[in-house]
Amino acid sequence: MYHKIRVVDTSSINAEEAFESLFNELYTRLFAYCFDYVKDQYVAEEIVEEAMLFLWERREDLDHIKNIKAYMYSVVRNKSYTFLNKKQQTVHLEDEMYDAPVEIDSEIIEEEVYAVLIEALEILPEKCRKVFELSCIEGLKYKDIAEDMGISVNTVKSQRARAIELLKKNLDNHPLLLLFLASL
């Protein structure tokens, strides 16, 4: 679930504070969203920063925008397409991407779920998190992980199991992610 964000000019909060709050809330999610398109960390960072600058420069003209978050996802998506087109890469666009805001909403929900998972992973102890990422996200075999990290296969298995248990505790109110963890 997501909520609408509006920058409101009141006497208790100035435009810079509102923008900083919005930036801090959206940057990581917009970066992950952009990275899915461009597959380059540096480029994704640049695109998101350009999008946020675009928002800041037009802050006076944003009254007509009802959902800043959806608007920013659209800006980042469009800037990603522009980058990909400039690089002469073929981008197959689905017709539905330009239809209704429902499509944008499902993309936002997907990114929100991804952001929740990333936050939960950051809470894990370092070794535990690395084993989980290599095993469950990158799909490496226990033996390869053990060699890579300089630990035994049994340690890999126990760290993976520990990671899943800790994630289940941290994500107990996110049924979709719990379903994902149960499938591992």
From TrEMBL:
The keyword Hydrolase does not apply. NCBIfam families: Sig70_bacteroi1 (TIGR02985), sigma70-ECF (TIGR02937). It comes from the Bacteria. Belongs to the sigma-70 factor family. ECF subfamily. Pfam families: Sigma70_r2, Sigma70_r4_2. Residues 117-165 form the RNA polymerase sigma factor 70 region 4 type domain. InterPro entries: RNA_pol_sigma-70-like, RNA_pol_sigma-70_dom, RNA_pol_sigma70_bacteroid, RNA_pol_sigma70_r2, RNA_pol_sigma70_r4_t2, RNA_pol_sigma_r2, RNA_pol_sigma_r3/r4-like, WH-like_DNA-bd_sf. Keywords: Sigma factor, Transcription, Transcription regulation. This is RNA polymerase sigma-70 factor. Residues 22-88 form the RNA polymerase sigma-70 region domain. It comes from Joostella atrarenae.
